[in-house]
Design a protein that fits this description.
Number of helices: 5
Number of strands: 6
Distance between the termini: 14 Å
Number of domains: 1
Structural class: alpha+beta
CATH architecture: Roll
Shape: globular
CATH superfamily: ph1033 like domains
Length: about 180
């Protein structure tokens, strides 16, 4: 399965070549954003962006685990309908979230200092807006909550790991190959 996923990812339409060496240790993630705040279209326009504003310790810990080359599914939350909209690549890990230092930001943390930041994040790069948006209803039909923690009742993390087999199936759904 992993080799199928690798070959599918090599076909990303924006002409980015994903080096084969990344597949052996690459991990997969799902990262949520409300499209009114920041959408896959915004990331496509910007190309690269810091994934700022995460203020949950478990989600932050997942962000700390991310490595350059990892891939993340871009999930539109609080949308009608919510679902997976595209794919992005982690370009830089262990970035101090700049919003924690800005007193005018809603994510300001007065206990955080540049010498000892409490909140870390990653820089992501747009890879692809999926030809087929994968709504939450289809995710519920396809996966169990054990396979995709997003489906667990009350599970509100904005960043979570995705098993490679689930990642492959998500790509099939997004490309209507299921």
């Amino acid at each position: 399965m992993h080799s199928q996923l690798a070959s599918q990812l090599l076909q990303v339409r924006h002409n980015a070549i994903l080096p084969r060496r990344l597949y052996s240790g690459m991990r997969y993630w799902l990262m949520k954003s409300e499209p009114a705040a920041y959408s896959i279209d915004d990331l496509q326009r910007d190309g690269r962006e810091i994934w700022d504003g995460v203020r949950n310790y478990q989600a932050r810990n997942y962000l700390r685990e991310m490595q350059p080359g990892d891939l993340a599914f871009f999930y539109h939350s609080n949308a009608k309908p919510p679902g997976v909209a595209g794919l992005m690549r982690i370009m830089k890990g262990n970035v101090a979230d700049p919003t924690q230092f800005d007193p005018n930001s809603r994510y300001y943390d007065p206990k955080s200092t540049p010498e000892n930041p409490r909140w870390h994040t990653v820089e992501v790069e747009f890879l692809e807006k999926f030809p087929n948006f994968v709504p939450l209803s289809l995710l519920r039909q396809t996966f169990t909550p054990e396979q995709l923690p997003l489906l667990k009742r009350g599970y509100r993390l904005s960043v979570m790991p995705v098993d490679p087999a689930v990642a492959e199936k998500l790509l099939e759904l997004a490309k209507n190959e299921a």
